Structure formats: C-alpha cells, structure tokens
C-alpha cells in the first residue's frame, strides 16, 4: 500500500521529460514546418531533409542508449541529454540557414533519442521492482500532452513571431520542465545490481529468437509507417484541403488530441486482449488511417488519418516495449534501446525517401504509399508473433 503514493510523481516526472524532448523537441517541428516554409526560411525539400537529420540524431541517441544501458550509466547520461536538448532548442531561435538548422536538429535528435529510451527504461525497471509494470505505458502520456502543447504554442505565437523566433516558446518551456523532471528521477531507488539476472545482463547478448524476431521485424515497419503522416500531415492538409477549412491549421491539433487517451486506451486493450492481439489491432488501425489519407480526398481523409494514426502510434510503442520485455525479461533497458534504435532507423528512411521522391517529381501526398506499405509489412509480421496473455 505504501508504494502507491510514490507511483504518481515518478510517472509524472517521466511523462514530463517525454513532453520536453518529444513534444517540444521533435514534434513541434511538424506544425512549425508550414510556417517556416511560408516565412521563406525553408523550402519543402529542405524541410524533409532537416527532418531526416533529426531522425538520424534520434537513431544515434538510441544507439548510445544501447551502449549506456545500465542504471548507473543512465543516471550519468540522462541529465546531459536533457542539457543537449535545451541548448540546441535555444540555438534554433538564432538559426536562419537550412544548414545550421540541420546541425541543430541532428544534435537535438541525439538528446531526444537518449531521453526517450532511458527515462521510460529507468521507470520500467523501478516499476518492475514494485510489480507495477502494467502502469508503464502511462509515461507516454507526456508525449501526447507534448503534441497538444506544441500545437497550441505554434498557433498562439503565429502572427507574433516569425522565422527562427518561432522556436522561442518551446525553448523557454523546456528549461523548467527538464530540470524538474530530472530532479524527480534522480532520486529513484534503483541499483544496477537488483537481481543476479540483472547482474548477468551484459553477458546475455541474444535479443532475437523465434518469438522475438517477428516482433522486431514488425516494429521496423511501424517506424516508417507512422513517421510520414506525423511529419507531413499539416503540409498535405494545406495542399489538399480547401482554403479556410479548420484542418488547414488544425490538422496537427487533431493528431495531438487523438494521442491524449491513447496510452490509457492501449494499456487497457493490452490487458483485455493480450499485448500481442492489441498490437495487431494497432497496426490495422494505423494502416487504415494512412489509407484514408490516400484514398479519401480532402478533409475527410486528412481527419481520419489524424485520428487513427495519432490515436495509435504510441500504443504500438508501449505495447511492443512491454511485450518484448515479456519475451526477454532479463534484458531490461538494453532491449528497449535495441527496439528504439531499430524504430528510429526505419523512420529515418521515411523523410529521406520522401525527399528523393519529391526531387523525382512525385507529390508529398503520394509518398504516403510508403507508409502504407510499411504498416502492411508490420501487420504481416505481427501475425507470426506468439500470442501472450
């Protein structure tokens, strides 16, 4: 009973850090991009390229987290990753050239990748000690709230700020939130040597077997499948929707609102259906959303895509992390880092392939077929993952 009061501040701290690095770091770029293009700071092609640099940084951060997977290493590297986020976000307020912004987004992505792996991993290990892992998905509420905060910040500052100045709200809000979130996690009572299995973890190098390999291959599809609508949906809305429609400026808000209940919803579905069955449903939902944007013209397709992809992609993340830990309970943070590294590698390919497609004369809208194909791949491999209860 004494453990329950301590649960909320720990989850809130983790959620706050994800809000900072994901909402104010990564995904604030999505609603900002159309305005940066309109301000003449970037072209659409440069915007896609800069997104790719950010996702490369995220991959590097996840690989560093794979290297620094022990609790003691997380305690040392996590605060520096937060500092990197804050410094680069502040630097973006002074960055006008596409080349300099690419460098800042690369470094910001490194901080994001480290924090997105290490903060939930640290909390998951703490929850496992207290036999409360079913609550782990609630940490991702921070990313959901971050999407809403980023959407409102960009909308409210439009007309007041322009160009590189548009980064100021995200930079100023990041500082107190990052400081508070780390202060809470720094005091968690976790030691690197909790159990003999944990102590032996560095010698246990096998992550892939008959059960887990299909899960990894499926998750590769999830990375590319979600990143295209989550990066370019506002731009597609501007190109597809009638001028004056609320989705021209509000498509990202639709995505953000749809994400808000998703950690609780997919946590609950995982408990009711089993994580494997819930994951299959999540892939089918995302695939339906991307196909809606491709096959249903105008506002209806954009709306369905925003709701279905926004309300599902974090569920895929949390269910995959939890299911993988069930398949390999001795792996802990190392397993989480490996999954996120794979996820970030395939999502890195999405904006890059989109940029190549645009230079070949293709449209941004038709590039969504890449996402649909990737999600179909993911769903197919999920059917081969053993069902867990």
UniProtKB/TrEMBL annotation:
It is found in: Membrane. One of its GO terms (molecular function) is transmembrane transporter activity. GO terms for cellular component: plasma membrane. The chain crosses the membrane at residues 47-66, 139-161, 216-235, 247-266, 286-319, 340-360, 366-385. InterPro entries: MFS_4, MFS_trans_sf, Sugar_transporter_CS. Pfam families: MFS_4. This is YbfB/YjiJ family MFS transporter.
């Amino acid at each position: 009973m004494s453990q329950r009061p301590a649960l909320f501040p720990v989850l809130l701290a983790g959620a706050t850090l994800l809000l900072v690095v994901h909402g104010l770091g990564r995904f604030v770029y999505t609603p900002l991009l159309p305005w940066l293009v309109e301000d003449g700071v970037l072209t659409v092609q440069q915007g896609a390229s800069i997104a790719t640099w950010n996702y490369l940084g995220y991959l590097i951060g996840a690989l560093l987290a794979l290297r620094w997977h022990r609790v003691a290493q997380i305690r040392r590297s996590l605060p520096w990753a937060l500092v990197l986020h804050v410094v680069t976000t502040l630097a973006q307020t002074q960055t006008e050239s596409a080349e300099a912004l690419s460098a800042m987004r690369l470094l910001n992505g490194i901080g994001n990748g480290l924090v997105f792996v290490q903060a939930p991993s640290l909390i998951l290990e703490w929850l496992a000690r207290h036999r409360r892992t079913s609550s782990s998905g609630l940490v991702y509420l921070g990313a959901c709230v971050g999407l809403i905060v980023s959407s409102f910040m960009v909308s409210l500052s439009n007309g007041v700020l322009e160009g590189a100045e548009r980064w100021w709200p995200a930079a100023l809000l990041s500082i107190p939130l990052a400081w508070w979130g780390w202060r809470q996690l720094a005091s968690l009572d976790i030691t690197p040597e909790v159990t003999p299995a944990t102590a032996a973890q560095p010698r246990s190098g096998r992550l892939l077997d008959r059960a887990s390999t299909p899960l990894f291959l499926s998750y590769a599809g999830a990375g590319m499948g979600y990143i295209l609508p989550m990066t370019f949906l506002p731009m597609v809305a501007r190109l597809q929707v009638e001028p004056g429609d609320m989705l021209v400026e509000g498509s990202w808000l639709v995505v953000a609102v749809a994400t808000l209940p998703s950690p609780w919803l997919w946590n609950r579905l995982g408990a009711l259906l089993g994580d494997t069955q819930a994951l299959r449903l999540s892939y089918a939902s995302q695939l339906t959303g991307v196909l809606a944007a491709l096959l249903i013209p105008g506002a209806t397709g954009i709306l369905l895509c925003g709701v279905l992809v926004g309300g599902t992609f974090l569920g895929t993340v949390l269910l995959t992390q939890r299911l993988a830990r069930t398949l390999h309970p001795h792996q802990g943070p190392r397993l989480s880092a490996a999954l996120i590294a794979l996820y970030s590698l395939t999502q890195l390919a999405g904006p890059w392939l989109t940029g190549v497609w645009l230079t070949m004369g293709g449209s941004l809208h038709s590039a969504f077929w890449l996402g649909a194909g990737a999600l179909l791949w993911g769903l197919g491999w999920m059917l081969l993952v053993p069902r867990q209860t």
